[in-house]
Amino acid sequence: MSYKRSTLMQERMEQNRKIILQSARDLIAQGGFKDAQIQAIAERAGVSSGLVYRYFENKSQVLIEVLSDAITHEIGILFSIAKSELDPVQKLDKAVTTFVKRAMNRPQLAYSLMFEPVDPELEHERFRSKERIKQSITQILDEGKQQGVFHFRDLNTAAQCVVATMTYVVVEPLNPSQEVDFDEEYRDNFVQQISEFCVKAIQVV
Q: Is 115 in contact with 175 (CB distance < 8 Å)?
């Protein structure tokens, strides 16, 4: 009986944690990190601020976990592409287009997670996230070089350049202050140009 009670308590705690994180993510997607205050997170989750503090020491810890969870999901997609049966050129094209399209589908969330000014602790988590993205791109580029379809001097530098392109290039269209209204045609052309740039920069011709 004690074991069952303990299991139910653990499940309830996990559920509370998930609700808090989802509420924080929803607020970020609507108005950025500035809107994801502890009180607002608690109200959206239907819990007290005190309960939020039972799971997280402060707002930064909540936001770091939201960022980590979001990036982990994106990295899973990128590694799935890297391990697919596509050839290296197709893999790089798909990795870049998929990442950028997904960012543009949730502009406010993507902008906040990648660019919105944050405290040093959260900025450090951003750096770690980009390193993890780079690992998936490195795998694709290494395979391409071994097959003779990619050429570059240094694998790490080439991967950094690709990641920098596929992330920072979207800062302008995603920036809420720019009020860019991109329709499907604009988005598709924008994404295609980014992908072509990345592939042609290292492709053997």
A: yes
pLDDT of residue 176: 76
**Mean pLDDT score, 57-77:** 93
Asked whether the beta carbons of 135 and 163 are under 8 A apart, the reply is no
Beta bridge partners of 203: 150
Q: Which SS3 state, helix, strand or coil, does residue 205 take?
A: coil
Contacts of 146 (CB under 8 A, 6+ apart): none
pLDDT of residue 175: 79
Q: What is this structure's pTM?
A: 0.87
Name the class of domain 1-56: mainly alpha
Instruction: For the domain made up of 59-202, give the CATH fold.
Output: Tetracycline Repressor; domain 2 (1.10.357)
Residue by residue, DSSP assigns 104-166 as: HHSHHHHHHHHTS---HHHHHHHHHHHHHHHHHHHHHHHHHHHTTSB--S-HHHHHHHHHHHH
